[in-house]
Amino acid sequence: MYRFHMKVYGCQMNVYDSDRARTALRRRGWVEASEDEADMIVFTGCSVRGKAEQKVWSELGRYAPSWQKNRRPYVALTGCIAQSLGERAFSRYPWVRLVSGPRHIGLLPEGLERVMENGRRVTLLDEDPREFFDLDEFSGVRDNKYRGYVTIAHGCDNFCTYCIVPHVRGRFLSRPPADVLQEVRRLVESGAKEITLLGQNVNSYGNDFKNDYGFVRLLREVARAEGVERVRFVTSLPQDFTEEIARVMAEEPTICPSLNLPIQSGSDRILKLMNRKYSRAEYMEKVRMVRRLLPESGLASDLIVGFPGETEEDFEESMSALSEICFDLVHTAAYSERSGTPAATMPGALPQEVRMDRLNRVNKLQDSITLSINKALIGRSYRVLVEGPAPRGEGLLQGRTPTDRVVLLPGDEELSGNFVTVEITEAESWCLRGKIIERPDLL
Ligand code: SF4
């Protein structure tokens, strides 16, 4: 019986992959333990931003004293960070005994057992970006029982010039619809009420099939699957988000009216340098379409500031796009070089101070936009899925509106996993606060 401890950094896909690996290890007889007691520490890390990569890198160094004392714990590095740093981790840290790229997840449990048996190093890096060894497991063990995630497609073929994903997660590959639907059923059986479909670009789902089965059909089938009460999906590429998808969202009551449509920049010149295949005007057209067909929807976005060559005028165009569109939420980031991507060697790299100054300015603007949108919601009521105790907010519960806004509310923990109707009473820029006006009878 081996003891393992998981440490997960990065996006929802990493969380989902490590939950599946966790479930598989437990099924094989492994026991989850605290970090101090584990024989094997499994890191799943993100390589999309330099900061996340540095964090894992420095964490790996912390095992030196215990390794020198008793040659434990073994450490495994998995996920996209393993793909980018795996060989270096081997040469620098003797306690790293396994590296596994995201497309080798199916071989991970057996690889970890090989390390435990003989202590020898195991390399499962993704040499071929088209090959995929999937894990026949769902995220049965997950932090939130009521929310389940399902990857519908792996990898990406878009090659935005700043992005490392196509280099570390390989070529685009849709999962067969039967597998996705079976996983949704398993999640529902294990208590999930809300299903989120994951992919770097979910809208391209099925483009690699020989038939015409695509995202619209999958979305509708998941929305109608027995026991599914809410469906969300991330991420959508603006050029691939169609009116047909918006119509399915409007027609199917279980699909949440919330959408993440990453704009990345408001400047056409920068969008071109980023190899994003839309102009600002085309993006605006999509926003108008979404708001026409889904007037009550929550619209989120991603934005990068300080891309190589971004002038003050380009940056101002991003600021004006935010003011014009009024997103509900924007995930902002200062550009960070990812080695091996075209943007990393582009001329016009900006000093860190300029990037951080722009990041602060853009955050300030978006915070004020989000706050004024949220304030206008005071007095309105929403159906909220209670997820459990709030991580921030003593004694409060946390849930989400269909439009994906976090709501904090007083109430009994036994309401977790139930839908309640909440009236919004206060608004902050990152969350809403409310009171329950209708709740199920749990007796
Ligand atoms: S669409 Fe662009 S930003 Fe998104 S994962 Fe693919 S390459 Fe990266």
Layout of helices and strands:
Layout (H helix, E strand, L loop, with lengths): L2 E6 L3 H16 L3 E2 L7 E5 L5 H11 L3 H7 L3 E5 L1 H13 L3 E5 L7 H11 L3 E3 L22 E5 L1 E2 L10 H5 L3 E2 L2 H13 L4 E5 L16 H9 L6 E5 L8 H9 L6 E3 L7 H6 L6 H14 L4 E8 L6 H14 L3 E6 L17 H24 L5 E9 L6 E5 L5 E5 L8 E9 L4 E7 L5
Parallel strand pairs: 1-2, 1-3, 3-4, 4-5, 5-6, 7-10, 10-11, 12-13, 13-14, 17-19
Antiparallel strand pairs: 8-9, 15-16, 15-18, 16-17, 18-19
Helix pairs in contact: 12-13
Bound molecules: iron/sulfur cluster (SF4).
Structure description:
The chain is α/β, with parallel strands linked by helices and 443 residues long. The protein folds into three domains: 3-124, Methylthiotransferase, N-terminal domain (Rossmann fold), CATH 3.40.50; 147-375, Alpha-Beta Horseshoe (pyruvate-formate lyase- activating enzyme); 381-438, OB fold (Dihydrolipoamide Acetyltransferase, E2P). The chain has 13 helices and 19 strands. The strands form five sheets. A six-stranded parallel sheet has the order 2-1-3-4-5-6, sandwiched between helices. Strands 15-16-17-19-18 form a five-stranded mixed beta barrel. Strands 7-10-11 form a three-stranded parallel sheet, sandwiched between helices. Iron/sulfur cluster is lined by residues 156, 158-160, 163, 165-166, 200-201, 237.
